[in-house]
Every structure is written in structure tokens, then in C-alpha cells.
UniProtKB/TrEMBL annotation:
<dbReference type="Pfam" id="PF00106">
    <property type="entry name" value="adh_short"/>
</dbReference>
<dbReference type="GO" id="GO:0016491">
    <property type="term" value="F:oxidoreductase activity"/>
</dbReference>
<protein>
    <submittedName>
        <fullName>3-oxoacyl-ACP reductase</fullName>
    </submittedName>
</protein>
<dbReference type="InterPro" id="IPR002347">
    <property type="entry name" value="SDR_fam"/>
</dbReference>
<dbReference type="InterPro" id="IPR020904">
    <property type="entry name" value="Sc_DH/Rdtase_CS"/>
</dbReference>
<comment type="similarity">
    <text>Belongs to the short-chain dehydrogenases/reductases (SDR) family.</text>
</comment>
<keyword id="KW-0560">Oxidoreductase</keyword>
<dbReference type="InterPro" id="IPR036291">
    <property type="entry name" value="NAD(P)-bd_dom_sf"/>
</dbReference>
Amino acid sequence: MHTYQAAENALENKVILVTGAGDGIGRVAALTYAKHGATVILLGKTTSKLECVYDEIVAAGYPKPAIVPLDLKGATKQHYRDLAATIEQQFGKLDGLLNNASILGALGPLEHFCVSTFENIMKVNVTAQAMITKYLFPVMRKAPSASVIFTSSGVGRQGREFWGAYAISKFATEGMMQTWAAEVGKTNIRINCINPGATRTGMRATAYPGEDKDKLKTPEELMPTYLYLMSDDSAEVNGQSLDAQVK
């Protein structure tokens, strides 16, 4: 997957929702999907960041995107219902969902974890991902072939000290993906995970403030795996957890 090269029009006529689209991997994924022909729906909590990505996509001459400002920490089921209704009304279907938005919270021993911080991390990284996927399922069933990508982490496969609620949330993400993938079986919807690995993002800098960021992969370098799982070339791939970087 790391060397996958998508055709220029690989995502033509597809409608793809990207959460956390304002910066980091979400921003680059949105731009990349648009470059390959997709109409991208940009979801994030900071409108000004989404507008910048919107402007980049339009300036490049890619299909005109849409913006959905939504803070997943405070989102309710009505927000998700309204989102699904709007997508169905405007686009008639949804071909892809990249559940990219996550929060790191605070790193430290689980014994010392603040309950409210724990709950916020689980709300954004687990509950919101589950709800947005659940409510968008009916719209994705209207697509010929729909792909859902959850965002995992190395600390969601092997527990590591001091990663606390973030690690637990990513273990939950892996389990959610596997359960959902088993339920959809061989239908028009497939569900997989991507572990981006150590990447040059703001979240990584918060977790490792002393790290030399120039030694890290950029979000752009991870895009072959993100393109592969969103394109029809992965139509038979379901229930897999892929690494965006060579181990």
C-alpha cells in the first residue's frame, strides 16, 4: 500500500466526508481526495481552518467541497441525523468516510487520570466515531461501493505506559472496526483502519515536544494508503488494520 499509485480520476464522482479536516492528516487527505476527483465534505470544529482548506481546494480547480463546522465533543445524535439528512439531500449518497478527528488529551499514569479528561477523549475518539458512522450508514448504502476508514495508532495495538485514555480509545477503535466489518460482511460497505504512525503533526509535537520533527514522515507521504482504502481498488478489503508507514 505504501507504493500505491492511484489514477488521477480514481475518486471521480465520489462524495467523501473527512472529519478533523482543518489541519494535519485530515487536511492533507481532504486535498488528496479532491485532487483525485472527489467532492469532499470538510468536517471540523474550527471554521476558519476549514475555510482555508476549502479555499485551497477551490484554488486548485478541484471539485467544489462543502464545509460542516461541528465540535465532536459536544455533538448530539440530532447533529448526526441532520448531517446525514443534509448529505442525502445535497448529494444523494456518501461514498467514503474518513474518521480522522481525535484528541490526545493528557499523557500520564492512568492512576492519576482526570475523569473529565478521560470522558472527553472517549467522547471524541470513540463515541463520536461510532455515532457519525451509524447515522451515515443509510446514506452510504446508496453508494455503489462505500469505504469507512477509522484512525488507529500503534498504542492501540500494544499498550504503552503513560498513553492513558488515548491508547484505550484506540484499542476501542480497532475493536469497533473489527466488529463493524464482521457485521457488514460482503455488502457495498467496507470498514478498515489505518495506523498513520509517527507523523509530522501538531498532535505528535504535543506528545513528543523534544522530538526532531524533520525526521518524521509528513502527512503527504502517508497518502498512498489513504487513497488505496478510499478507491475501488480496495473494494474487497474489509476488516483490516493497515500501517501507513513501512515498519
